[in-house]
Amino acid sequence: MPGVPEPELPRSVKLAFRFIVDNFGILFLAGVMTAMASKVHQLGFDGTVEAVWELIEGNPVGNLALALSVVVAGALYLVSRPRPVYLVDYACFRPPPTCRVPFSTFMEHTRLINSDERSVKFQTRILERSGLGEETCLPPANHYIPPKPTMEAARAEAELVIFSAVDDLMKKTGLRSKDIDILIVNCSLFSPTPSLSAMIINKYKLRSNVRSFNLSGMGCSAGLISIDLASDLLQVHPRANALVVSTEIITPNFYSGNQRSMLLPNCLFRMGAAAILLSNRGREAARAKYRLAHVVRTHKGADDRSYRCVYQEEDAEGHSGISLSKDLMAIAGKSLRSNITTMGPLVLPMSEQLLFALSFAGRKLIDPAWKPYVPDFKKAFDHFCIHAGGRAVIDELQKSLNLSAEHVEASRMTLHRFGNTSSSSLWYELNYIESKGRMRRGDRVWQIGFGSGFKCNSAVWKCLRTVKAPADGPWADCIARYPVDIPEVVRL
User: Fold this and answer.
1) How many Å apart are CA 73 and CA 57, to the nearest integer?
2) Which letter does DSSP use for residue 100 in this model?
3) What is the model's pLDDT at position 368?
4) Hey, what's the torsion of the CAs at 408, 165, 478, 219, to 10 degrees?
5) What integer best gives the mean pLDDT of the chain?
6) Worst-scoring range by mean pLDDT, 104-108, 156-160, 371-375, 376-380?
7) Alpha helices, DSSP H only, in 378-441?
8) Would the pLDDT of 7 be above 60?
9) Is the predicted pLDDT of residue 2 greater than 60, yes or no?
């Protein structure tokens, strides 16, 4: 009748209908398997292979159930196994010669900017022992006297380093904007609105459904955090490409005060960026350079000393900067030990694991004064990329891991040529190894990064093909004269 509402089905009936329709295949298979189990029970099944074939022979339902069981089992295996993550290629920003800051230029600007003679002498001593060379670069805003750390200048630096690296990566790989499914950008100290990831989306007109992430405040090890995040996302999104961009924007972070612990970053940090293309597409395996084997992350932020050892704050005069604690190297060493304790069982041969286990048991059960056994990681890795955070960082890891001068050559030369480029330094080091023609198929690479918080993160890559020395890239114009001798002290 007009005006009389139609009767509605109860909500429970609707839910039941949807459940049955959405899961019909599973429910059908379950019913068939139940029927077969009942039949087996009735026939007194003895568990032999012959009995199985007798049961299903001439039985269409049994054959269908067997086929469905195989299909479901195969599907479950394919879905549950980890997807391989390939590093197709990467590109590093090469600063223009106009941005170079030779020692004489750096110290002349320091004297003109800072009237405190003690601060000037302190920075001179730091620079003399830093391991940096004469070709490191600072952004244009830092070449002014005094520097001009404006938002506009910071954005200009970000566009220069990020767009240059991404452009080079697209040129090398043939990557198109529409091919990017995941975008991850990490920059610790410069976090504008809109974000740096939005800046890339706008520049390259990425798809509206791109999954974008912007990581800030995570220090120099954030590059490996980005790799770990990309790897996790590639596990749940099939046939996807991930673009990872690692950088640190120097412009807004110049410290103009006189506190010594906050003057160190002025002397060590330089401009740089890296763009990395990761993929889980099977067809990329043929041209990819590396496959990701492991990522191990260690966070010591629960400890107050670790939490404050790299700390952004204002000094007594209100100048903002990054304060580096005197305990930094001790805390880094402790974080490294925790990281390699987790990494060891994943990569070390059984002989090294056994020696480590015996040493650990001996210290616990017999004599705590026993010197702990340090596993020989040279038996697990062919190349080491240690974050070029400073000369002391490289020295400490070389000593702790008992590495040769050749093992840390890439880190020392990167620090000398480019300075501390924060999270992107690991990629300059990897490019150094490639540029020297040392990367062979089957080689394993260990990247180790340290960052505020305090964090020690590491990643293991397996080389899929022998990598030819690149004709371009950040080392193209100078690799022939490296390695160079780096004196303990450069007198200025």
Assistant:
1) 21
2) B
3) 78
4) -30
5) 88
6) 371-375
7) 391-400, 409-418, 425-435
8) no
9) no
C-beta neighbour count of 358 within 10 angstroms: 11
Contact 373, 111 (CB under 8 A): no
* DSSP percent split of the chain into helix, strand, coil, nearest 5: 50, 15, 35
Tell whether the torsion through CA atoms of 147, 153, 154 and 156 is positive or negative: negative
Q: Do the Cβ atoms of 299 and 228 come closer than 8 Å?
A: no
Q: What is the pLDDT of residue 357?
A: 82
Helix or strand holding residue 90 (H, E) = strand 86-92
Tell me the residue type at 303. Answer: D
Determine the Cα–Cα distance for residues 230 and 173; give it in Å rounded to an integer: 18
d(CA 225, CA 297): 8
Give the residue numbers marked as catalytic: 220, 299, 383, 387, 416, 420
Length reported for the chain: 492
For residue 304, give the amino acid letter: D
pLDDT confidence of residue 21? 65
Residue 162 has pLDDT above 90, yes or no: yes
Pairing of strands 182-186, 310-314: unpaired
First to last CA, the chain: 100
Tokens of 136: 């490191």
* Distance of alpha carbon 122 from alpha carbon 225, whole angstroms: 34
Q: How far apart are CA 278 and CA 329, in angstroms?
A: 32
CA dihedral 342, 345, 346, 351 (to 10 degrees): 150
pLDDT digit string, tens, across residues 440-473: 999 999 999 999 989 999 999 999 999 999 989 9
State if pTM tops 0.90: no
Residue 109, SS3 per DSSP: helix
Q: Burial of 117 by CB count in 10 Å (0-12 exposed, 13-18 middle, 19+ buried)?
A: exposed
